[in-house]
Amino acid sequence: MVVPVDYGKLDGRTTTVAISRVRAGDPERRRGVLLSNPGGPGAEGLDSLDLLGDVLSPEVLAGYDLIGMDPRGVGRSGRTGRCGWPVGEMIRSAGVDLLGFAHDTVQSAGMAASCLVRDPELLRQFTTRNTARDMDIVRSALREEKISYYGTSYGTYLGAVYTQMFPERGDRIVLDSAIDPDRYWEGLVQDWGPADEIALDDWAGWAAARDDTYRLGATPRQVRAGVEELVRAAARQPIVVDGFAVDDHWLPFILHGMLMNYRINAAVAETVRELADAAGGPPTRSRSPRLAAIVAALRDGENSTLAQIACGDSAAMTDLGSYWRNIEDSRVTQPVFGALASNVEPCAFWPRPVEAPTVVRNSVPALIVQATGDPRTPYAHGLRLHQDMAGSRMVTLQDVRIHMTFRPGLSACVNEAINTYFDAGTLPESDTTCHADPSTP
């Protein structure tokens, strides 16, 4: 589809948005379209069947066209190409000292400039509000009065913004692992710090019970102490794996990415064990495919689309001294992740957003699903969005450390609530608590 770059200039430049459609399994039972977003910001969303095909019930698959969409600036929807970043991610820890923070500050400024030097007019329009407008163009192009929607992680922010901007256009809205719009983007990242520390403690208990296998410590305290020492060791001498230096900036980021799913506890333990074995030694090659993939992404990839959308959506602090003070203040209670959650990002050097962030306060019906142990979108975010969307119901997945709850074999209770809503349009009569299935590993 062709859409305006700037919806305030409908006769100006245009860009394209790519969508996909998997038609409803039973045309006679078809009730509409179900659009989805897998998160990010910056994740490609065309493959709606891969995201939802193994968790939606046969009845829902029969009744909806599944609509995938690459948001503007992402994938086949006008991604601008690489900015030329020296590292793959804009999110990383400031490290253990002021010198590390100074390094990240200079690097972040360069990362922002290298993106904006080419076409700032275009990049500044890669915003969630514009993507919501694009979604409504999709709805109109498909000749639908309303759209149903499933969004996870960042997709919940996009969905919430859509309900605020187009309150009459949403049909059955499911927001899985929700972001509090008032905390997006910088506030969300800050909230990762304490949530990641809790997740680390939870994993440390699991690893301590398996000390015979992983040799990371016989008690949770020993496991945590070992991780904290490994970060300090990586600061003294980076752990070079597959040509990439895993140092005190990147080790917390690697852990942050892995701790959001208890189902990969063993992979976390194997990764920590592998890095601990390599610490203080010569450059080495990765032993596990998972670590190899992580290192390759940091060494060779570039997630600049995240910056283009997040920085375009929400203004960040520009007082560099405040970042450092926040980092130092966080170290006592957040020894591993405080310097990541409070670190400077390219957003500090980005132009101010072209529009103010959307304030979400509405009564549009929606189903919000949140795990209490989610470190990526902490539980408090779901509670706050539930309050702000007065017509919503909330399903809590209790005592589970996981991000994205709509998964095969995780909780039949969660899956039933979501499928029932999409199929029958029935929200729970009241907020509901679910648990992981007993057979879940």
From TrEMBL:
Residues 33-197 form the AB hydrolase-1 domain. Keywords: Hydrolase, Signal. Gene3D superfamilies: alpha/beta hydrolase (3.40.50.1820). It comes from the Bacteria. The keyword Repressor does not apply. Residues 335-434 form the Peptidase S33 tripeptidyl aminopeptidase-like C-terminal domain. GO terms for molecular function: hydrolase activity. Transmembrane segments: none annotated. The keyword Signal applies. Belongs to the peptidase S33 family. This is Alpha/beta fold hydrolase.
